[in-house]
Amino acid sequence: RLWRQQAEGRIDIVADARRVTLYVQAGVPAAALSSETYDRFEEYLLRHGKLTRPQYQELRSMQIEGSRRVGAHLVGVGHLKPNELFPTVRGHLAEVVAGLFAWETGTYRYVAEPANPDDIIALEVETPTLVAEGIRRKYPMPRLLARVGSPSSLLAPCEEQPVPLEVLGLSVEEQRVAHLVDGTRSIEDVVFSTRLPAQTVYAVLATLLACGWARVVVRGIEGVDAQGASAGDNV
Fold it and tell me: What is the dihedral of CA 33, 6, 130, 87, to 10 degrees?
């Protein structure tokens, strides 16, 4: 919704002791602050081999706030190449956003407060693409089943589609899933027709639902397991 409205402001997302503050500019994430140690920029750099352990420990002791500031410092001391700076801070922001899709509960609050210009990171992807990637990476099969329905469920395109299919960043194979969503084919039929793994098909369908591109018209009621197999699949 923020993307469609090209909104600018701050979203505070809270679950138990976890807190992420996400700033959006023209509806696209532009900066993030997180209470999670895993989300720190220096942790991201260490995981991706951009920092050695001693460099990481030295950086932690300096308590520099903000990925752009941390990145600028690392470029200044020669730990990060200048041409690596912006791709790295963009990758970190995208990973923090994707990590939010692992949360199953929480609350959010939107405030019309812009980010500090010194903290803004210009992502090169649209928000719906980030939604698709978050679902693809963070939704396990049981959660996809709960969201979309069993293999006998039917989905259809919404009459008004606020998010164009082309901005979801789907592969050619994943786009075939969307084109088969017509209200007559069950999810099981779509899996059979595309020959894609069930989890891939379910992730695309969950993305289409989240973005308002599709809706569930008939929700199947048969039992399925964590891999998306129905009770009759072994008969």
Answer: -60
Strands 107-111 and 28-34: unpaired
CA nearest 182: which of 199, 205, 210? 205
What is the spatial distance between Cα 107 and Cα 98, in angstroms, rounded to a whole number? 17
pLDDT tens-digit readout, 19-73? 999 999 999 999 999 999 899 999 999 999 988 999 889 888 888 887 888 888 8
Nearest alpha-carbon partner for 71 in 90, 97, 95, 94: 90
As a three-state string, the secondary structure of 157-179 is ECCCCCCCHHHHCCCHHHHHHHH
This prediction has a pTM of: 0.83
Q: How far is CA 134 from CA 94, 202, 220, in A?
A: 9, 13, 25
Helix or strand or coil: residue 133?
Answer: helix
Taking the C-alpha atoms of residue 13 and residue 109, their distance in angstroms, rounded to an integer, is: 7
The strand pairing partners of 216, in sequence order, are 155
- The pLDDT tens digits of the residues spanning 146-170 come to 999 999 999 999 988 778 888 999 9
Is the Cα torsion angle 119, 24, 109, 165 positive or negative in sign?
negative
